[in-house]
Design goal:
The complex is a heterodimer of chains A (642) and B (233).
Chain A (H helix, E strand, L loop, with lengths): L1 H16 L3 H5 L9 H4 L3 H13 L19 E3 L5 H5 L9 E4 L5 E3 L6 H16 L5 H26 L26 H15 L15 H21 L20 H16 L16 H7 L10 E5 L10 H5 L13 E3 L1 H4 L37 H5 E2 L4 E2 L2 E2 L5 E4 L4 E2 L7 E2 L8 E2 L19 E2 L20 E5 H14 L3 H14 L13 H11 L5 H8 L3 H4 L7 H4 L15 E8 L9 E6 L21 H6 L10
Parallel strand pairs in A: 9-15
Antiparallel strand pairs in A: 1-5, 2-3, 4-14, 6-13, 7-8, 9-10, 11-12, 15-16
Helix pairs in contact in A: 4-6, 4-7, 6-7, 7-8, 7-9, 8-9, 9-10, 9-15, 10-15, 15-16, 15-17
Chain B lengths: L4 H15 L10 E9 L2 E2 L8 E5 L9 E4 L5 E6 L2 E6 L7 E2 L11 E5 L3 E6 L1 E2 L1 E11 L2 E10 L9 E9 L11 E6 L9 E6 L9 E10 L6 E2 L3 E4 L1
The chains are: A alpha+beta (642), B mainly beta (233).
Chain lengths: 642, 233
């Protein structure tokens, strides 16, 4: 038996071993695709392009909920992290504001990824050299990669100002490394580059309003309008913060260039508005329910003419858990939800239908509580976008009413509440315990409950299963939409002195939200422009860049505690202080025999978890360039406050 | 097989003889300490706010040792002997740091040999003069004079003066139990700044608070502070 085994193994050894050495060492690895192979097949090229699309940098992003609710537009409902989110008054110069969802320190404002730019450049070069694709496809793919590169440089500019502009792949030949070190461009040159690329790309990319996830003429023009507008406002409002600039122009744009950029922004936006890039229009499919209509912009993917470019998701392939972590906790599809709790600061800034600003009426002029039959009554007669952005008490999500109330208030002012969701207690004069607090809270310090009295509605997915970990949500992250084009045009027109035109564009967006009393040319001012963007694009990321480019962040977050009186006054002002996130808590009134028994009262509330008053430093306007990047390239100049 | 004791012993001996090679670097021993002062008078800052950088040129590395002044405006390092350069980055601190002709922060040369103490003179925008705090009837009052130091192109205006009270020695914008603010424009006389704030319920109860006054300047992130004072009720 042993001999047999030896003989057989000897045979195997001879059989397998007797290969010539050169052949033996020349085996192609099966898991690595060579460049020639990758670019020899149209499907492969497309998949490489898809990867490049996936690597665009978004802030906020749906995969990380903490990126959405910063700047006191929301309260973060997460145990053990309150001190990081609400006890921490400053942002790091790299955008650190507490840990990410896994508890690691997160720097959200540092997109510096030149590997991505290199791969975009390589893609364009290899695609051009490849032979597998026909010429029109090749030209289209290269144009798409160019669009992605311009878009990414735009992103970098938003965070850092001027950065090195690398437009072809660089190779290290083993010699002088300084040949690979490039200095920063001027901030204005970055925006000029994005505008120039957009102008060239708009004729190369298809004018197709039905393409959402890939670059189109509409996306190029929308990017041009946004970039020109940002450049213009930095030129104009950057003058108010002279210390936020560098003598070489890497940060800061001369004020004289503002008008030129505003003109470019208006022209590019109007090219989309007049239909030059395809049939884009505001989403108005559900005229009977304007709030639902507004929310549907973000989840309705069929024939949605509003969305111009989006980071698309598809169940089973690319999905996120945004609904899972933010859904109303009561009756949720998973044992979690309710992370982002929009603040009263945001909620009260939605206008009344007569275009005026007023805090939510909790008390009458004598200081007595106002009693409401239904919870939603206090929010009646307001901008319909409120209900599309925020889940208010008494409303429903996925056809299920939310249960938001903080406790029971007795006639003598005593409050009876519980320390867990849906807690029960015996009310005076009764013998049986009954529910004294909503199943969705709010209970201070209890995560998943609506601690400000509100949940987020925008980007939540009404599809069944979207709140389950195993299913997830395919709601897309909208990057450019038609309403922004309109508001960009309105802002540019306002800055160019064409206030009537600005009012026209702004009214289009406002009437979709039920604000049918038109604004006149005289109504348009800086506060209006800033406010309209804040409520229309709440939680979409625009607010962050608006804070920066208008140079108003250091006034809004001035490190001084926000008093209740401050909170409730000057609602229309763009530079209104907002250093702490407030809440509005509903209480059920219990006074048997009184006509108000069972009605609702509301109290303005600041959670005891909010201990810090946010302080925006001038150094936050431009992200710090990290030390290792500076060390690798001595030609980079530091940021103004670095 | 039997393991014999002498094998283990000799093995252990050889191992210890071979491995005990001295491989540690000598630790840095020279202490560099100092304060940020104006005419010899120390400046007070906020905790974790005003940063500075130390460079040691000549080793091929361009990165700095970054650190932050203490609330008392002090710094301390244990370093090797050698030549260092200290820089306060632009925009840091409630004071003017000298700049070179091309707009970069100028450096202070430090030649370190043994323990060295070094005070660095700067020009603060304003000095807080004669700060005084008092507690009475559940309230803390603070008064001070503000003396303008920097004039001309680099002059800054007072944006706000804040009285901070805190349960701990850190009484600043990040750690406090109550604050009182007055906007710079609302101060009629900078020689007579007066603030008062009600002491809230302290949990757990204590019969003292710490107080300090901070001044914020327009166009500068970091505030200048008076020394923190303990007030016992």
């Amino acid at each position: 038996m042993k001999k047999f085994i030896i003989a057989i193994s000897a045979l195997f050894i001879f059989g397998a071993g007797c290969k010539s050495d050169s052949d033996y060492l020349d085996i192609k690895p099966t898991q690595v695709l060579s460049t020639e192979l990758a670019f020899s097949d149209p499907a492969q090229v497309l998949s490489i392009l898809a990867d490049l699309y996936n690597r665009q940098y978004d802030y906020p992003r749906l995969t990380e909920w903490v990126t959405l609710g910063d700047f006191n537009e929301a309260f973060y409902s997460q145990n053990d992290q309150y001190n990081n989110y609400h006890g921490n008054s400053t942002w790091d110069f790299r955008g650190y504001k507490g840990p990410d969802f896994e508890g690691r320190p997160a720097y959200f404002w540092t997109p510096w990824d030149y590997k991505y730019i290199r791969e975009l450049n390589l893609f364009m070069e290899r695609c051009a050299a490849g032979t597998a694709l026909d010429e029109p496809t090749k030209a289209l793919y290269i144009a798409e990669a160019r669009f992605l590169r311009a878009s990414y440089y735009f992103t970098l500019t938003q965070y850092y100002g001027g950065v090195p502009l690398i437009l072809s792949s660089l190779e290290f030949n083993g010699g002088d490394v300084t040949a690979l070190q490039f200095p920063r461009k001027k901030e204005s040159e970055m925006y000029d580059f994005v505008i120039k690329e957009s102008e060239e790309l708009k004729v190369l990319l298809p004018a197709n309003a039905n393409t959402k996830a890939r670059a189109t003429k509409g996306a190029a023009l929308a990017m041009e309008a946004r970039a020109a507008l940002y450049a213009a406002s930095i030129a104009k409002y950057g003058a108010t913060t002279p210390s936020v600039s560098l003598s070489g122009g890497e940060v800061g744009i001369p004020a004289g260039m503002a008008n030129g950029y505003y003109t470019t922004a208006l022209r590019a936006a109007e090219e989309i508005i007049t239909g030059g890039a395809g049939a884009y229009s505001l989403y108005k499919k559900q005229p009977a329910n304007l709030s639902e209509n507004f929310a549907a912009i973000f989840y309705d993917k069929t024939q949605n003419n509003e969305v111009i470019w989006a980071d698309d998701y598809a169940l089973k392939f690319k999905r996120h858990g945004f609904t899972q972590v933010n859904q109303p906790r009561f009756g949720a599809e998973e044992e979690e939800g309710g992370r982002i709790n929009p603040s009263l600061n945001l909620v009260q800034s939605f206008e009344k239908l007569d275009n005026t600003f007023e805090p939510l009426a909790t008390n009458d002029i004598n200081g007595n509580f106002i009693y409401y039959t239904n919870q939603q009554d206090i929010f009646a007669g307001r901008d319909a976008r409120l209900g599309g952005t925020v889940i208010i008490p008494g409303s429903s999500f996925k056809s299920r009413p939310v249960d938001i109330w903080a406790g029971v208030q007795l006639a003598d002012g005593t409050v009876i509440s519980g320390s867990e969701r849906g807690a029960q207690k015996v009310l005076p004069g009764k013998t049986v315990p009954e529910q004294v607090v909503g199943f969705d809270g709010p209970i201070s310090g209890i995560e998943h409950s609506a601690q400000t009295g509100f949940y987020i509605r925008k980007y939540q997915d009404p599809a069944i299963g979207s709140g389950q970990r195993g299913v997830g949500s395919a709601v897309w992250r909208v990057r450019y939409r038609f309403a922004e084009v309109l508001l960009n045009a309105a802002e540019a027109a306002f800055e160019l002195g064409q206030t009537a035109l600005a009012a026209n564009y702004m009214n289009e967006v406002r009437s979709r939200a039920g604000l049918t009393v038109p604004l006149t040319a005289g109504d348009i001012n800086f506060d209006r422009v800033v406010h309209e963007r804040r409520v229309e694009f709440a939680f979409e990321g625009e607010y962050f860049f608006d804070l920066k480019r208008f140079r108003i962040a250091h006034k809004i977050f001035d490190g001084v505690a926000l008093s209740k009186a401050d909170l409730l006054s000057n609602l229309s002002k763009a530079t209104k202080r907002s250093t702490q996130p407030y809440g509005l808590l509903p209480y059920k009134f219990y006074a048997p025999g009184s006509p108000n028994n069972g009605k609702w009262i509301f109290k303005v509330d600041l959670s005891n978890k909010v201990t810090a008053s946010d302080n925006w430093q001038l150094g936050n306007y431009y992200s710090q360039i990290e030390a290792d990047i500076l060390t690798k390239n001595p030609k980079l100049v530091k940021q103004p406050n670095q | 097989m039997k393991i014999k004791f002498q094998y283990i012993l000799s093995f252990a001996l050889i191992a210890s003889a071979v491995s005990c090679k001295k491989d540690n670097f000598e630790e840095p021993k020279a202490a560099l300490t100092g304060r940020i002062v104006y005419q010899g008078e120390p400046l007070n800052f906020e905790y974790n706010k005003v940063s500075y950088e130390l460079y040691q040129p000549g080793f091929g590395k361009t990165g700095p040792i970054s650190s932050i002044f203490t609330p008392e405006g002090a710094f301390s390092h244990l370093l090797f002997d050698g030549n260092y350069k200290m820089v306060v980055p632009l925009g840091q601190g409630p004071f003017v740091w000298k700049q070179t002709a091309d707009g970069k922060p100028d450096s202070v040369a430090i030649s370190l040999k043994g323990n060295t103490s070094l005070d660095i003179e700067v020009m603060p925008y304003f000095m807080i003069r004669t700060p005084a705090f008092a507690y009475s009837g559940g309230k803390v009052s603070g008064t001070c004079k503000l003396e303008q130091i920097v004039t001309g192109a680099n002059a800054r205006t007072v944006e706000r003066v804040t009285l901070y009270i805190s349960k701990t020695r850190f009484a600043d914008s990040q750690t406090n139990v109550a604050t009182a603010n007055v906007a710079g424009l609302a101060i009629p006389d900078l020689n007579n700044v007066s603030l008062n704030v009600t002491v809230p319920a302290l949990v757990p109860a204590q019969n003292y608070v710490f107080a300090s006054i901070g001044v914020k300047f327009s166009g500068a992130d970091d505030m200048i502070f008076s020394p923190v004072v303990k007030l016992t009720f």
